[in-house]
Design goal:
The complex is a heterodimer of chains A (about 190) and B (about 425). Chain A is of the alpha+beta class. Helix content of chain A is about 60%, strand content about 15%. In chain B, about 10% of the residues lie in helices and about 40% in strands. The chains are: A alpha+beta (about 190), B mainly beta (about 425). The interface between A and B is medium-sized, with 25 and 35 residues.
């Protein structure tokens, strides 16, 4: 009983902490702070204000730079993760569309060397679990090989297969199947800076 | 010595099915063919006091066992009825007494009688907790099978399969009839492809918690251990019925190959040296040969190979997708899944790939066939009823019975016999 309570308490604490963290992020945005600076009273105030303003604006510039950088990375990651590479039935060779998309992904990865990418191979629901894992492996591998050939460092590229275990779309018609025969990218950022 | 006797018994049965009846003291005029079922009378137990059964009364469990195991056809009757039994050609019947004891347990006296003479052919007594009644009746039923056929029954065997619980694929086990279900895995990733360790000590299965397929072993009531962690992606486990050794698929890059490994030491080596991809290994009953699927011909097809990994021969030629072959415990046939027009169906064929029989058709997808350890039945997963559930059928495709319900159930694997020691 005590344990359960403790767990619940811990859960609440974690939730509060997470909430707190998420609240903090907008505060790094310095704009509201500058507005707070009092504008009247006292003799040396003008100099004081000038000082704080310049310090503030520096911090703001830095924060804005980081924010922009973060947004840029996020946008790139989203672009990579939202686009899946699609395959024909029981095939693991790249279609022309797939190659065009992969060239774009490769371009991002070549320029942004901090990205570590896992390529997941997936299949549609038809066929056995076992064969589909091997098929998914061929799909993820062909994508990885393409990116390496384009110039992406292979040590930043992992390939795994989920077979038919994780469909993107449920259903048993071609429109669902065609969306599930895919390679999906999972991106993380190496913290080597 | 006993082993020898059993062996000769088996040989005699195989060679001289029609004369089998002579071995027994009673006249049994059906062969051992599974295609013919033996009618058997089932009469409700006499109850002392009112007993509240956990799920079903003993005679209903016996009726289900009789019909489901593929050997019998139950002839239910409220009381002993020689006219009915004669008419239905039931030469034996089962019944018993049940009494509730002061300690809460239930005493079951179970009997097998010859209908005409009322000779007692078999009597067994069990004192069990109410929850274990089902297990006791299964156990009695297997003794009935042994008494009448001289073969081991499967009423005490179990199935492992994958069940969607709160949206997650978990490995569960249950009695062969779908009752007494128990959840084995409890983590929040995908669990699949369960197979039974030798001696039914536990399971080997695939888990995706590391965001890739990996083999794990779990002992019942014990802990889970990762297997063959020297490989990144492992799946398709198959347990050697003689040694417990494992065959499994390893994926590296685009290539998937079969390895053999020792679960205890963790050592493993490549089993097949082929250019093609290989999945779904399956041992022959005496572990002298292995079936597997390869795409060396451009499409997945079933091949056989010696246990040393040499002498590959192709088994299936019909169609463009034949996968997950499994060797009958009787040794004479192979069951596999074939895909045609995007639909999966179950087939059997002889060891050389001839004599193909389609067991399922026009009923959704039917896949992942697994033999009962006596080779009489095949369990499989089908979405014929809307969502995937586990079904059992006789090895000729007759008597299809659904044994699970609820959310999705897939990937059944039948256990080994549980009474291995008794029969050695």
């Amino acid at each position: 009983m005590g344990k359960v309570f403790k767990l619940a308490l811990m859960g609440t604490a974690i939730a509060l902490f997470a909430w707190g963290c998420s609240k903090e992020k907008p505060e790094t945005d310095p704009q509201p702070k500058t507005a707070e600076a009092p504008a009247d009273s006292s003799l040396n105030l003008d100099a004081l204000i000038a000082d704080t303003l310049s310090a503030d604006s520096l911090a703001r510039l830095e924060a804005e730079r980081l924010e922009a950088e973060r947004a840029r990375l996020e946008e790139m990651i989203n672009r990579i993760m939202l686009e899946d590479v699609y395959f024909d039935y029981d095939r693991s060779d790249l279609t022309e569309n797939a190659k065009r998309l992969l060239a774009q992904v490769a371009e991002i990865l070549v320029n942004e060397t901090r990205f570590i990418v896992t390529v997941e191979g997936h299949t549609d629901a038809r066929g056995t679990e076992d064969y589909n894992i091997s098929l998914g492996a061929r799909r993820s591998s062909v994508v990885r090989e393409f990116l390496i050939a384009y110039g992406v460092d292979g040590s930043r590229l992992m390939s795994v297969s989920y077979g038919k275990e994780r469909p993107k779309v449920l259903g048993s018609d071609e429109s669902a199947y065609s969306k599930n025969r895919r390679a999906h990218f999972r991106v993380s950022i190496a913290n080597n800076d | 010595m006993k082993k020898m006797k059993l062996f000769f018994c088996a040989i005699a049965l195989m060679l001289a099915a029609p004369t089998f009846a002579a071995i027994d003291t009673i006249a049994v005029d059906v062969g051992i063919s599974v295609f013919q079922t033996m009618p058997i009378g089932v009469v409700p137990f006499e109850e002392e006091g009112s007993i509240k059964w956990t799920n079903e009364a003993p005679h209903l469990i016996l009726t289900r066992d009789a019909n489901l195991t593929g050997r019998f056809e139950a002839v239910p009757s409220d009381k002993f009825d020689l006219v009915l039994f004669s008419k239905k050609r039931a030469r034996q019947y089962v019944t018993g007494n049940a009494a509730k004891l002061s300690n809460g347990k239930i005493k079951l006296d179970c009997y097998l009688y010859a209908a005409e003479t009322k000779d007692l052919l078999l009597g067994e007594s069990y004192t069990v907790k109410p929850y274990d009644v089902r297990q006791a009746i299964h156990s009695f039923f297997d003794k009935v099978v042994y008494r009448l056929f001289g073969e081991r029954g499967i009423a005490t065997t179990k199935l492992a399969y994958v069940s969607k619980i709160d949206g997650m694929k978990q490995v569960v086990i249950s009695d062969y009839d779908g009752f007494s279900r128990r959840q084995i895995t409890r983590d929040s990733s995908i669990n699949t492809m369960p197979v039974w360790q030798k001696g039914n000590k536990g399971l080997v299965y695939v888990n995706f918690r590391k965001q890739r397929p990996n083999l794990y072993a779990i002992t019942f009531g014990g802990k889970e251990t990762p297997l063959f962690t020297q490989y990144k992606q492992t799946f398709s486990p198959a347990v050697n019925p003689k040694t417990g050794e494992l065959l499994f698929s390893v994926t590296e890059g685009a290539k998937t190959e079969i390895y053999r490994g020792d679960m205890k030491t963790g050592s493993a080596q490549k089993f097949l040296h082929l250019k093609s991809n290989q999945v779904s290994p399956s041992w022959s009953p005496f572990a002298s040969e292995v079936l597997f699927t390869s795409d060396r011909g451009g499409s997945p097809q079933v091949y056989a190979v010696g246990k040393d990994g040499t002498d590959v021969r192709r088994i299936t030629y019909m169609g463009h997708y034949n996968e997950r072959a499994s060797w009958s415990p009787e040794g004479d046939r192979i069951v596999y899944t074939s895909m045609d027009d995007g639909k999966m169906n179950i087939y059997t064929c002889a060891l050389d790939g001839t004599d193909i029989i389609q067991l399922t058709s026009n009923a959704g997808n039917n896949e992942h066939p697994t033999w009962s350890p006596d080779g009489k039945l095949i369990a499989f997963a089908s979405d014929r009823g809307g969502n995937y559930q586990i079904y059992i059928m006789r090895k000729d495709g007759s008597g299809v019975t659904r044994i699970t319900n609820g959310t999705e159930n897939t990937s059944p694997t039948w256990s080994w016999f549980f009474d291995e020691k008794k029969f050695k």
